[in-house]
Write a structure and sequence with these properties.
α2 packs parallel to α7, α7 packs across α23 and α19 crosses α20. The protein contains 23 helices and no strands. It is mainly α. The N and C termini lie close together (10 Å).
């Protein structure tokens, strides 16, 4: 009960919850009015396509009892059922739960995805408050509520929308461990990272970029305890992911772990068109660019035919073909890879080919021009505040490792695949939290100025975290 009072009693917490409600209403407006669902492609509405098509239809298939089958084959090939692990399982499972309750339309799924945005805003506010005080929490929640690069994922049915609050939970559990570095808390951290991985596969890198520096650098634990806690974290994470990992080994011809499309993703960035020129660091149709469709068709006869004549093949077998072709290109061009990797990271962090990435966001990724442009402006505005916030948290003796770990994770994911703005979601979340700390520090400086001290109320005390 004391913990509940901490999270509901103070003025700052009440403000954070109110801002969360406002952020949710903004997302609802975006779904129902700003970009309502439509059947034809248009700049003024939302049409189901790409990853969102996969998530929506797979959720409805799960609701019908067809667990994790390929929705593209089902919809376009006369209801053909074939196993699929095109994405980690949790976002489709979340949508399927709502489908089970009758909310099974495209707009229904978009609306229930806005609840993830509400959770993210509140959690960001509470975490920022925990790290830097009530003002920081309110400011961070307000930024998260309106930041287009965050709310757009909810209304587009992208797994990043479901991933966002989970990232904040990972950060929260990491700071729990910082305050009391015991095995129970490191186990919870391992479980949280596993849940994030079952939503976005690149989160598995947090075991290396977050857990290892957290436990091994700057820790007062003895060597043996560091080893034990590292093992506990990893084993708990493995246990959480085990049902999905084991099931995948039983239903595909080739080994599959988190996803069965690793080769497909690698292949999208494995051609000259994605390694040079205007699209350097981005993705392209590398099958077409490299003239591989004929060989693909020869390897999998009938795979390109129209229904009902199309021949479906095991997803893992097709992905092995893609993976081998991608690796062939990488091996033939390995001396050029460092430059391309930097370009990919530059794409994700918005310091390389910014204009082209912006155009691709709304022309190809379907993220619309206004939110993409405003979101880019907000990102740049947050950069100096993030730096200041880092110094503020460091001076307050708050460990920065959990927040800073988001950068190498995204850099690694981008360097090994290609650069996309939406890959940067964990970094955007860390930036919002650090910016909240910076703004709170600036406000506090103004409050302590003798010329303004009488006109501003004193800062609100922060209760201890439960």
């Amino acid at each position: 009960m004391n913990g509940l009072r901490v999270h509901f009693s103070s003025r700052a917490v009440q403000a954070i919850w109110a801002i969360g409600l406002g952020g949710w209403l903004l997302r609802l407006w975006a779904v129902l009015d700003y970009r309502p669902t439509c059947d034809e492609a248009s700049d003024d509405c939302y049409r189901l396509a790409g990853d969102a098509f996969y998530h929506h239809h797979q959720a409805d298939l799960i609701n019908q009892g067809h667990w994790y089958v390929n929705p593209l084959e089902y919809v376009f090939n006369d209801g053909y059922l074939i196993d699929s692990a095109g994405d980690p399982p949790l976002y489709a499972l979340y949508l399927a739960g709502w489908s089970r309750l009758g909310a099974d339309g495209v707009t229904d799924h978009r609306v229930v995805s806005t609840l993830c945005g509400f959770a993210m805003v509140v959690l960001i506010g509470l975490l920022a408050r925990r790290l830097a005080g009530g003002t920081a929490g309110v400011v961070a929640a307000a930024i998260a509520a309106v930041h287009p690069l965050l709310w757009i994922n909810d209304i587009m049915l992208l797994s990043e929308g479901f991933y966002q609050p989970i990232v904040v939970v990972v950060l929260w559990t990491a700071y729990d461990w910082v305050e009391r570095p015991d095995r129970r808390r490191v186990a919870v951290l391992g479980a949280a990272i596993a849940i994030a991985t079952l939503t976005r596969a690149e989160a598995i890198a947090l075991y290396g970029f977050l857990v290892l520096p957290l436990v091994w650098w700057g820790s007062r634990l003895e060597l043996g305890e560091r080893v034990r806690q590292t093992l506990v974290c990893g084993l708990v994470g493995l246990a959480v992911m085990a049902p999905w990992l084991i099931w995948n080994q039983t239903r595909f011809e080739k080994p599959v772990t988190i996803s069965a499309v690793t080769g497909t993703v690698l292949m999208a960035g494995a051609c000259d068109e994605a390694w040079s020129g205007e699209r350097m660091g981005f993705w392209d149709d590398c099958f077409e660019a490299r003239g591989l469709y004929e060989e693909y068709e020869a390897t999998f006869p009938g795979v390109s035919l129209d229904p009902p004549d199309r021949v479906p093949y095991d997803e893992s077998v097709r992905d092995e073909f893609n993976r081998e072709k991608a690796f062939d290109y990488y091996l033939d061009n390995w001396t050029r890879f460092p430059k391309v990797a930097v370009a990919r990271i530059g794409r994700s962090l918005e310091f390389f080919r910014v204009g082209h990435t912006l155009r691709m966001n709304y022309q190809l990724e379907g993220r619309w021009e206004e939110p993409s442009t405003i979101g880019l402006g907000m990102y740049y505005a947050l950069v100096p505040l993030t730096i200041v916030g880092g110094f503020v948290l460091h001076r307050a003796r708050r460990r920065l490792t959990p927040l800073v770990a988001m950068w190498p994770m995204i850099m690694f994911a981008s360097a090994t695949t290609f650069g996309l703005t939406r890959y940067r979601v964990p970094v955007d979340i860390a930036m919002v939290i650090m910016a909240g700390a910076a703004v709170a520090w600036i406000i506090e400086r103004l409050r302590t100025d003798p010329r303004t001290a009488d006109s501003v109320e004193p800062p609100e005390p922060v209760e201890a975290a439960p």
